[in-house]
Design brief:
Helix content: 55-70%
CATH topology of the largest domain: Arc Repressor Mutant, subunit A
Oligomer: single chain
Order of helices and strands: HHHHHHHHH
Largest sheet: none
Radius of gyration: 18 Å
CATH architecture of the largest domain: Orthogonal Bundle
CATH superfamily of the largest domain: Winged helix-like DNA-binding domain superfamily/Winged helix DNA-binding domain
Structural class: mainly alpha
Number of helices: 9
Strand content: under 5%
Length: about 200
Amino acid sequence: MTATAALRSVRPVTKTQRYDDDGVAAKCVLGGDIDAFESIVARWQGPLVNLAYRYCRNRGEAEELAQEAFMKIFKGLGKWRQDSRFSTWLYAVASNHYRSAMRRRRPIWADMETIEQIIPAGDRSQEVDAASQSEAVRRAVASLPAKYRDVTVLYYFQDQDLAETSRIMSLPSGTVKARLHRARKMLETKLATVLTTRPLQEAHR
């Protein structure tokens, strides 16, 4: 199994339905109807908590980070360009907050040697079971340098396409594509003792 296939085998977050009233709710909040923000929170709480969990791997901390992100979203609503998708702006604000928060906190992820602790004993040439494999992939992704980890989390774990990942990260699509390619190469090396890897092919969307 390639590192690319392994990434895609980790169950992604189910995409949130694209509601037409995100913009309406935001405009109501800006117009003074604070209660309208509750609909935004209700709609996006799950996705933002899941996104935070990909960074910190702790459910309680993920919920705290998501609450902080919603505060930033609430205070920054006036900065949302209404000619762009609300979800793109929301993900960008949340992702930026999570990256900043992780830089300020002591990393809780050990080096890749810790993966060996979750690999079943026995012949390492055999495929590990699905649960251990998925956990190994998540640990490997978390150990990537931030610029490679962030695009990988959005593209694979949040199920964003290349164009949307580029918009969220405010990066050219070519840069995102290059970082995804580099991340897959790094993961192929990191997971060499866990997965049966073959040369990776570029993923196009």
